[in-house]
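A.,

Following up on our hallway conversation. Structure tokens first:
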């Protein structure tokens, strides 16, 4: 596999894999609007019933069976704070 970002078409679908943060292990389908994928994604996530903006940064990609899987890693510094389970009432 090459480290170069492949060219995908406008409107092509890719699978996002979230690593870390409240969305850890979840996946999402996104559509390319400019022939590539996003360098970062901000996700509105419900944490204990409170909506929170969580940032994820591009980490890596792989292609399997003609489908692209793009991994994004939690960016705690740029995300809204999320209470640690230990600190909750």
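Then the amino acids I'd put at each of the 89 positions:
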């Amino acid at each position: 596999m090459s480290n170069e970002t492949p060219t995908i078409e406008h409107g092509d679908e890719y699978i996002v894999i979230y690593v870390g943060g409240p969305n850890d292990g979840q996946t999402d389908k996104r559509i390319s609007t400019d022939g590539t994928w996003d360098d970062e994604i901000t996700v509105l996530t419900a944490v204990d019933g409170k909506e929170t903006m969580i940032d994820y940064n591009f980490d890596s990609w792989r292609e399997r069976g003609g489908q692209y899987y793009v991994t994004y890693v939690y960016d705690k510094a740029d995300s809204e704070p999320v209470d640690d389970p230990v600190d909750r009432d």
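The two ends are 47 Å apart (CA to CA). Curious whether your intuition agrees with the design.

B.
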